[in-house]
Design goal:
By secondary structure, the chain is of the alpha/beta class. Helix content is about 25%, strand content about 20%. The longest helix has 18 residues.
């Protein structure tokens, strides 16, 4: 996300402590009026998990004019069009971002198989559903950015192959995630909110060719 992307309308899904969205603004990667920030957690769950960091970040995003929504499921984005005020004439987001997607413990179909095949399938299904439900919300020249960790089991999700099952999307490029251009961003554990500064490693961009 270079500075030239600052004027792109941007939807961020599944933000954790909302430091990523704040960092987009601080790093000149987006402007408040074009940023829609969402979390899977409800506001109360968000604060319970991520504490004052999230409360402060959400308050600041709203103060500067960003649109913030909670309880938004990245697998069913179309169900939230009305809530997000995306009417019939909405032209689509130019950029949809999902960082560190992960099925958290309470959502696992087979919690006892944390690193096994079931866990991999669930997360691949999460990402494929996200890509498919994002298509109607994407502008004709828009991109979907997904960032995942490099090591196993994340590498087994094969994110770079999922666009094959979500036409007309196609993998455009792979980039190293450069957190140095996002001042103040700290990745947090999706299950317990603990900070993990080394969580983000590799980004992939998908779009309509």
């Amino acid at each position: 996300m270079g500075p030239c992307a600052a004027l792109m309308s941007t939807l961020v899904v599944g933000d954790g402590n909302f430091t990523f969205c704040l960092a987009l603004l601080a790093g000149g990667r987006c402007v408040p009026s074009l940023l829609t920030a969402t979390s899977y957690d409800t506001f109360d769950s968000l604060i319970s998990k991520y504490g004052e960091t999230a409360r402060t970040a959400v308050g600041e995003l709203r103060r500067v004019g960003c649109r913030v929504f909670h309880g938004v499921d990245a697998m069913r984005l179309g169900d939230f069009r009305a809530e997000m005020g995306l009417g019939r004439n909405f032209g689509g987001f130019e950029r949809i971002v999902f960082n560190n997607p992960l099925i958290e413990g309470s959502e696992k179909v087979a919690k006892e198989i944390h690193d096994g095949g079931d866990y991999i399938i669930q997360n691949r299904y999460l990402l494929l559903s996200f890509l498919r439900t994002s298509i109607p919300l994407l502008s004709p020249q828009g991109e979907i950015h997904v960032t995942v960790k490099d090591p196993a089991p994340y590498s087994f999700w094969r994110v770079d192959k999922l666009a094959l099952y979500a036409p007309p999307l196609a993998l455009i490029r792979k980039d190293a995630f450069d957190a140095s251009v996002l001042p103040g961003f700290v990745a947090a554990n999706v299950e317990n909110g603990s900070l993990n500064p080394r969580a983000v490693k590799r980004g992939q961009a998908h779009g309509i060719p």
